[in-house]
Write the structure tokens for this entry.
Amino acid sequence: MSATHPRRAARRRDRRRNPGRVFVGTSGWSYPSWRDHLYAGVPQRRWLAHAASQFDALEVNGSFYTQIKPETYRRWRDETPRDFTFAVKGHRFVTHYKRLLGVERSIGLLRSQASGLGDKLAVAVWQLPSNLRADPARLDAFLGALAGWPDVRHAIEFRHASWFTDDVSARLARARVAICMSDAPDFPLWRAISCDLVYVRLHGHTRKYASSYSRRLLRAWAEDAVRWASEGRDVHVYFDNDAEGAAVRNALALKAEVAALAPSARKLGLLASKRA
């Protein structure tokens, strides 16, 4: 058996000393139907602050559809705890209209707008259209454009299985861009890791945007999250099954499962810190 390469051994030692963290939240938070699931008795102006008291992080879903003003991002920064984390979803103009080409200016616009979140912004996730097939040259151009926004991490949600190759994973690894694991009944799921960031979007396993995850599935995702964090990776898990409030219940249940699997996780830094 060959000896372990000294650089690999060093990286493994560093990961043991510096485990990653697990962030769990929902994709969006401003849903009127959640009055019965999360916001009972909470005025709408306090919804974000209340959600931030329950979850470790939130994914800004509205940034996919519209241009959000910098002052709105700044307000969200001010309404959340100091150690809270956001992810933003890249605008569909970049992914669905321009289809990743010639998008430097648009990426720069989102970077400028979202800068209002300050250091609470951790990740930008880019959802590709389901009919966009693998195109290495197109991907390289996009990764080059993302390099112009180096102060946050990036993840790409591929929705066509032709992208699921070792070559694509290697290109992402060189750019330190994460593969977004996307679970839904009609999306292909690529369970692969390309870097020290793991990004998961759970859209509903049997009914997209609606169905609740079983305890068995939540336990499996929790086991994965704890293992990935122990390997030195930051793990972001967002529930997008918001239609019937399952995202709230599932996110809280997953947090509990992670804590149960790793009772010393907070001491080791595996979990985002708890807020009062």
Notes: The first strand starts at residue 22 and ends at 27. Strands lie at 22-27, 57-60, 85-89, 121-127, 153-157, 178-183, 197-202, 234-239. DSSP finds ten helices and eight strands in the chain.
